[in-house]
Design goal:
alpha/beta, D-Maltodextrin-Binding Protein, domain 2, 318 residues, six-stranded mixed beta sheet, 11 strands, three-stranded antiparallel beta sheet, 2 domains
Length: 318
């Protein structure tokens, strides 16, 4: 009994010692989507402030593939010492609902901090006559199977929004697969793809230049940059609106003291006016980091919600 007690004490001592000395090397934030995309930009908006608070460099590593599953798997298998995190988005809970993944969205991860959410712009190529989302729906209904949209990954908020819009309106759109939005943008600007939900920060410059036309914004309220563009709800399609959240996660058995330290540093970074400005510039809405338990609860709630929806609708990744 005494030996068991001493062994437990020794384990607790080692864990506590590691937590007190954390971090001991550079941190790595895995982005499970392409470099230069909106998730990558969101991660980079906070890494400098985080590095300053932790006293160690914070590196952003893009590891795209399999609808975000490859990078997420790498994060799940990383040493649970707090030096490897993943910036998770909606696809963290939708992809496992759509396909079998070698990782579980809640059991294999622990929440660290909620970062915020980002809106999508609903856009069309300006050659299309539609000036409103309702006009586009009517236009698409008259041309079944002839309108393409960007499928940047089966579990992303953009693809899920398009799938919901298809199911809720009866239109027949064809998803064209891309590994994220950076390689897809040239095709929609050229008119080879006519319609899409695109992350705000990626679409905004092209809407401003007139190369794309915004029909709606998938957000709780209108954008300050495009106040004339209605929300999905105002356009009459609230049931097809999906807003992607962003949250930092670590492997599930990461010491709690390390998670608490990370949460504290993220809270400071996300409250910094410079970081807030960077996030807003790419169309994001930063949120208070909250407690790790709040991130855990959000993950569980969202996974249950999307699993039920996928099962009820029979959604599949194209």
């Amino acid at each position: 009994m005494k030996k068991l007690g001493f062994a437990l004490f020794l384990v607790l001592f080692v864990v506590t010692a590691k937590a007190q000395t954390f971090p001991t090397k550079p941190l790595r934030i895995i982005v499970p989507f392409p470099a230069g995309g909106i998730v990558d930009l969101m991660a980079r908006s906070v890494n400098e402030k985080l590095a300053s608070g932790l006293g160690q460099p914070v590196l952003v590593e893009a590891r795209p593939g399999a609808n975000g599953s490859l990078g997420t798997e790498a994060a799940a298998k990383a040493d649970p010492d707090g030096h490897t995190l993943v910036l998770a988005t909606l696809s963290h809970v939708t992809t496992p609902a759509l396909i079998k993944t070698p990782w579980h969205p809640t059991r294999d991860f622990a929440g660290v901090a909620i970062m915020g959410h980002i809106a999508n712009l609903v856009v069309v190529h300006p050659d299309l006559p539609a000036k409103t989302l309702r006009e586009f729906i009517e236009y698409a209904k008259a041309r079944p199977g002839r309108i393409n949209y960007i499928n940047g990954g089966g579990g992303t908020s953009q693809t899920m929004s398009a799938e919901l819009l298809k199911r809720n309106t009866g239109i027949d759109l064809v998803g064209i697969g891309y590994k994220g939005f950076p390689p897809a943008i040239p095709d929609i600007l050229a008119g080879q793809v006519q319609f899409s939900f695109i992350p705000f920060g990626v679409a905004a410059p092209h809407v401003k230049s007139g190369k794309l036309r915004a029909l709606a914004v998938a957000a709780p309220s209108r954008s300050k940059m495009f106040p004339e563009v209605p929300t999905m709800a105002e356009a009459g399609y609230a049931d097809s609106q999906v807003i992607s959240w962003y949250a930092y996660l670590v492997p599930a058995v990461t010491p709690r003291a390390v998670v608490t330290r990370l949460n504290s540093e993220f809270a400071k970074a996300l409250a910094d006016p410079e970081v807030i400005g960077r996030i807003e510039k790419i169309g994001g809405e930063p949120l208070p980091a909250g407690k790790p338990e709040e991130a855990d609860a959000m993950l569980a709630r969202e996974f249950e919600r999307w699993t039920k929806l996928v099962q009820a609708t029979g959604m599949k990744i194209e």
